[in-house]
From TrEMBL:
It comes from Bauldia litoralis. The keyword Lyase does not apply. Belongs to the ABC transporter superfamily. InterPro entries: AAA+_ATPase (IPR003593), ABC_transporter-like_ATP-bd (IPR003439), ABC_transporter-like_CS (IPR017871), ABC_transporter_ATP-bind (IPR050166), P-loop_NTPase (IPR027417). This is NitT/TauT family transport system ATP-binding protein.
Length: 254
């Protein structure tokens, strides 16, 4: 065992289908340190989202072990939060009511909930929007609400499944910068799924590159770019080198 916060050993996931077993993940092993920002990249259907669901306790693995601080991840936990491509906000609840929902479900003190909610709205840049409804917000703003709600119950680990994939390019880049600002301020451990290689390099400390199904780890790329990151960093030759290195691992270096 290592002193990693999250450790997976020989993870395999097999689904039963009408035509026989389908191996989604095969013998995946990794270690993630506390406070790291990790991205998972790979072709569609390679098991990225499946791996994230296993880490979140939403899917059972078929073989192997996975643990958080040495404790088996076999069920959903309050110290792990998940965010998806769609914001999954309740349309009949205001921004403030959506953000406070985890605290209500967990039975947290109402006064503490209210204070925490205002702090989070400030953190994600939504001061003054607490009484708005999701239908009154842009896609980027709805994802800010989802991020605030994700942080509301204080998880140590954020699992993010293409959270900005449905946004336009300008909004996506803005949200990436916002996410990095929030990550640097909170020190959370982040595992981020994306199809965008440039995004993975821009955000991450390390990038886990996955093979086509059955998903295996083809390799890990250490992103040795300075922090804090800025949009200007994408002009750095090293940024381009890392992007092309990952493209080569994925077989798209032409």
């Amino acid at each position: 065992m290592t002193d990693a916060l999250i450790e997976g050993n020989h993870l395999t996931k097999v689904y039963g289908t009408a035509t026989g077993p389908l191996v989604a993940l095969a013998d995946v092993s990794f270690a993630i340190e506390e406070g790291e920002f990790i991205s998972l990249v790979g072709p569609s259907g390679c098991g990225k989202s499946t791996l994230l669901s296993i880490l979140g306790g939403l899917e059972e693995r078929s073989e192997g072990d996975v643990a958080l601080d040495g404790e088996d991840l076999d069920r959903p936990r309050t110290d792990i939060g998940m965010m998806f491509q769609t914001s999954v906000l309740f349309p009949w609840r205001t921004v403030r009511q959506n953000v406070r929902l985890p605290g209500i479900v967990l039975g947290l003190d109402a006064k503490e909930q209210a204070q925490k909610c205002e702090e989070l709205l400030d953190l994600v840049g939504l001061n003054g929007f607490g009484d708005r409804y999701p239908s009154e917000l842009s896609g980027g703003m709805r994802q800010r609400v989802a991020l605030a709600r994700l942080l509301a119950h204080g998880p140590r680990v954020l699992l993010m499944d293409e959270p900005f994939g449905a946004l336009d390019e300008f909004t996506r880049e803005t949200m990436n910068l916002e996410l990095l600002r929030i990550w640097e301020k909170t020190g959370k451990t982040v595992v981020f799924v994306t199809h965008n290689i440039g995004e993975s390099v821009f955000l991450s400390d390390r990038v886990f590159v996955m093979t086509p199904r059955p998903g295996r780890l083809a390799g890990t790329i250490d992103v040795d770019l300075p922090r804090p990151r800025s949009a200007q960093m994408m002009r750095d030759p090293r940024y381009s080198e890392l992007v092309f290195e990952i493209r080569g691992m994925l077989g798209i270096d032409h």
